């Protein structure tokens, strides 16, 4: 059983929104079945995307979260940073609010996720 391991994952381009990537993360961790207790740190090196831990059971949570984020950071504002389109600066602001990393506990070979 490795004490520490580092893997990189490349996600296919996804449309704007809240997406579940749990299976992608689990599939990228070949030694996960050997881990009884540990942590997994996930970092997203992109300034206009973010990571969060939330409920995956009810799809309406993702819809409502997107609505809340769009109300907090509307595209209709006159942002000065608009070189890459009107959605770029709002994406940077949403990333700042949500963050670019998540640390998950592992117990009995499973990621402990929110419910």
Strand order of the largest sheet: 1-2-3
Under the CATH scheme, which class?
Answer: Mainly Beta
- The helical percent reads 25-40%
Q: What global shape is seen?
A: elongated
N-end to C-end Cα span: 28 Å
Task: Work out the number of β strands.
Answer: 3
Uncertain residue segments:
none
Task: Assign the CATH architecture.
Answer: Sandwich
Please tally the helical runs, counting DSSP H or I stretches of 4 or more residues. 3
Radius of gyration: 16 Å
Largest sheet: 3 strands, antiparallel
Question: CATH H level: which superfamily?
Answer: YjbQ-like
Quote the beta fraction. Answer: 5-15%
Calculate the mean pLDDT score and round it.
90
Protein name: UPF0047 protein yjbQ
Pfam family, one: YjbQ
Family: Belongs to the UPF0047 family.
InterPro entries: UPF0047_YjbQ-like, YjbQ-like_sf
How does this model look, in words?
This protein has helices at about 20-25, 60-70, 90-100; strands at about 35-45, 100-105, 110. The protein is an alpha+beta fold. Strands 1-2-3 form a three-stranded antiparallel sheet, with no helix packed on it. The mean pLDDT is about 90. Belongs to the UPF0047 family. InterPro entries: UPF0047_YjbQ-like, YjbQ-like_sf. This is UPF0047 protein yjbQ.
Draw up the topology in text.
Blueprint: H1 22-27, E1 37-43, H2 59-72, H3 88-98, E2 101-107, E3 110-111
Antiparallel strand pairs: 1-2, 2-3
Essential attributes:
single chain; 115 residues; Jelly Rolls; three-stranded antiparallel sheet; 14% strand; UPF0047_YjbQ-like; YjbQ-like_sf; UPF0047 protein yjbQ
